[in-house]
Write a structure and sequence with these properties.
single chain; alpha+beta; 13-stranded mixed beta sheet
Amino acid sequence: MADAAQDDEGKRGFFSALLRPPKCSMLRMIVIGVVGGIGIWGVLNMGMEYTNRSDFCLSCHEMTIPFEELKKTVHYKNRSGTTVQCADCHVASSKTPTDYMFKSMQKLIAARDVIGHIMGTIDTPEKYEAYRLTMAERVWERMKDRDSKECRNCHDFKTMDPEKQKDRSVVKHEGAIEDGKTCIDCHKGIAHKPVHHLLEGGTGVQSAPAAAPPTETAPIPKAEDKATTPASVTPAEAPAAPIAPAPATVETKGPATKPMPKAAPKSEPKVEAKAEAKAEPTIAPAASNITALDWSKVPSRQIKVFYPGQAALEWVMNKPDHSSASDIIEKKRACAKCHEGDANEIGAAIVAGKPVGASKTVLEPNPPPGKVGFIPVTFQATHDASNIYFRFEWVPPKIGKKKLDPKNEVKLTMMFDGGGTVDGAELNGCWSTCHTDLRTMKDAQSDKKTKYIKDADLGSGKFMDLIQFRSGKGEKPVDGWVDSERHTDGGKSTLKAEGVKEGNKWVVIFERPLAAGGKGNHDIVADKVYSFGFAIHEDFTNARFHYVSLGYQFGLDKPQPRVKNYVDVQKQ
């Protein structure tokens, strides 16, 4: 019996051994499988990389349209020499192995483009434009779902250097982190023709705004030399009579009954080009009636006033036109927080008749020859027990021949609210008074309509106090206000305003009582913060053909170091 059992066990072992492949055969299968898998993956990867080349994409001729658009952007040609190709954004994945499947899926989805090519779906520029928004929306949706990984392969919030970014970029990126936004939320249309504004209800057809009325169509005369920055200065045509008095640093000829205010510390505003100016003879001022102050002890601030064209409040606050409108409205971010650093670029683009904003709107239908885009202004403010003082200093651009306001080479206007009395003024300053239906603006109905505030109420303080210096002979300072219209013959605040042209620069000083002097005047008290803005009419011009500031705020002896557009007016 034992022998029989052993025989049965032996037979089972023998047959089991037959069923098991030899060890060398198993190893061979593993090796073949690994090598074969690598070979198959390699072939697939080579095929994918081959089809990822821009040359391959361009074999479908309709793809030349977006590629030519890409070539005009910084993503294709830049100072670092890096170049983004079609696949970097449309097929891209990160370098992690898990993203290979996504990459493969993208190639399968791309087969739809091949079918479209064969069927001639977008084989003409007209057909391409008809489908452009639909195609763009597909890409935006995919990128948003992947947290803009295509962008973050090269860019990342953590490695950005705010010190090397523009103010608006820093603000935008800080907001994106706070709000959990991804790159494509804000950066649509950076490589191809922008059409994202159509999502906001725009028409997609951009046309220049309506031209100004005939009386204003030639605001700036032709200049022999086209100036591109405020540094291009030449001797100006002197006004018919001596202009208002200047600070004490101006050399006088003849006695003065009162000491003149001392000038600010010797520091010229920074400009982007070397000044090509010849110093003008100093104009001898009469005695000053403004209180003597030591301006060298008063902190100064550089503010760029820029050419606004027809950029009315309605344009600024309309998201399809201005992508930051929602930040202004919803997050209460002041315009200056984003644009103080690049106001010069904005002005230069507008004055040249270039399209700006999300809607690529032309805000200057008649680009004035020789007009510069911005002027750097040194701004100072101080007060004593009874008065507040504002000082402005700038280098004027070149003077032309034609004069829309022949009496005044310069007018400087400042407006401020009553401390939170005008809606939105804390964000945009005096822009609350500038609307699209004013004279010389896009929707002008009359050449008489001037600045106003919507739903103004003089009794409750919903108006802007207005003060203005005029350089012409015999011109008195304007002490007025803006409510439902602009008034230039109001207040009784005993406003004083004086200005002088010192060589190749202007200095204008206002002295105004802190206490309101009558109708259209705001009290200026220590427990409030006042929103303000100012504008300079240079070169004998008028109406909207001026330089304007963004919105700022001031308070008396009330430091607010974290508020970028705030000026602390310290007592002297």
